[in-house]
Design a protein that fits this description.
2 domains, 17% strand, Rossmann fold, 39% helix, alpha/beta, 294 residues
Length: 294
């Protein structure tokens, strides 16, 4: 994340859906952890349609419904955040939600969206809003699914981070260690050192050498962070498998998955192709996508 995002708010899109309220709950807990303001926004625009000619009464009705949604989202956020509750601000916009979120992402620290929705943000965040946010937002993005990880049981689970062995995963590691430290939980660092399904024709000795080399690479990537965050217990996972399958398996016992916005090697095409799309759409727990600083 760039320096200009360090003092920004956590921005969450809500639409009256259960998933949207889960996103508000997770965003509130995150804002409280990082001592940031929470800004909740909902849109009265109908996506995929030209501006309709509607009366002033209809506009007022849409706006009041937006205020109702924001009022409920604020209540959910206050409960999820606990004490001290972060500052919460709200906004009803008549702009299309995707364009509004992408533009606002220039000035916020993190954008949080639900994986699907209805109401003012209609027809599913999974296909349009969350996809646009993960691809085009200028800040870190967290997509919240069926589990908001704000209950006591889930909140005790570790953070899962994907490590590809390149500089592309450094921002994700930074964010993951910070989240684990603040939440007082462990960290699972997963390095999938191949993203092909066919087996290579190697001897047993060849496999051992490759695994030892990849294990050393993972240890090297984690060394500096482990020194900076001695309170975080780290479990290293090294697998020969497609990254998305390995991450999804580990995500079943994690409260949050953190990955970089793109990758190379084990995470080739992350969030640019099928691997990233499958991870964002299929994990039950929240998925955080962290951008590299320009």
């Amino acid at each position: 994340m760039t320096d200009r995002h360090r003092e920004g708010a956590v921005l969450a899109a809500v639409d009256g859906s259960t998933t949207g309220y889960r996103a508000a709950a997770w965003a509130a807990a995150e804002a409280a952890l990082h001592e940031r303001r929470l800004h909740l926004v909902t849109s009265t625009a109908i996506p995929g349609r030209p501006e309709p000619a509607i009366t002033g009464d209809a506009i007022g009705l849409l706006h009041r419904d937006g205020e109702r949604i924001l009022g409920e989202a604020s209540r959910v956020a206050r409960v999820a955040a606990g004490e001290p509750t972060p500052q919460i601000t709200t906004e009803v916009t008549d702009e299309p939600i995707i364009e509004h979120l992408i533009e606002r992402s220039r000035d916020v620290w993190m954008l949080v969206v639900g994986s699907r929705g209805l109401g003012a943000i209609r027809r599913g965040l999974l296909g349009s809003v969350s996809a646009a946010a993960t691809q085009h937002a200028h800040c870190a993005v967290t997509v919240v699914h069926n589990v908001s990880a704000t209950d006591a049981v889930t909140a005790a689970l570790p953070i899962l981070v994907g490590v590809d062995g390149t500089e592309n995963s450094v921002p994700a590691l930074e964010a993951a260690f910070d989240e684990a430290s603040r939440r007082k939980v462990g960290l699972v660092a997963l390095h999938a050192w191949s993203d092909i399904s066919s087996e290579l024709q190697l001897t047993v000795e060849g496999w051992v050498r490759i695994r030892e080399s990849e294990d050393a690479l993972l240890a090297e990537n984690l060394a500096g962070f482990a020194e900076r965050y001695p309170d975080v217990e780290v479990r290293r996972v090294l697998v020969y498998h497609r990254p998305v399958r390995s991450l999804l398996d580990e995500a079943e016992n994690a409260q949050l998955v953190v990955v970089g916005s793109h990758g190379r090697g084990g995470f080739a095409g992350m969030l640019l192709g099928s691997t990233g799309a499958a991870l964002v759409q299929s994990a039950d727990c929240p998925v955080m996508i962290v951008r590299r600083s320009p």
